[in-house]
Design brief:
two-stranded antiparallel sheet; six-stranded mixed β-sheet
Length: 145
Amino acid sequence: MTKPENPLDANSEFVVADEYQQRFNAIQARVAAAIAASGTPHHGLEFSAYAFDDEDLPVDNLDEVAIAGECRIAQPHDFFEGYWGAGGQDFESEVLRDPTWLQLCVVANRMMDVVKDTHHCYLEGVSPEETPGPGCPRFSFEMGS
């Protein structure tokens, strides 16, 4: 798809918006299918760490390795009375090897259930632990709302 010659052309704007939505929906459908295949209920996770092409449209990067090598994902339980976290616990994943973004979506969905936070449902990235401990590196999810 090419950029419209006249960026103020309303029809062209709708075409770009439709293409954006179609790509976004296709990415989220892949995430939902992977979560369903894992056998865990879908807790509203949406993948937001996708790349963008030259036209600022989403690019499906779910099959790309998100973290090279062995790692664990650790997410602390957070409680905000009346909103999220009631009855939750800290989360730590099994050891993962070269997880793709799609694999991390499945882990993030599982994490949402353990920490009891479905408010922060947008997986926006991962961050390494600030003070690495012994064993394989630990990362946490960057979750948005």
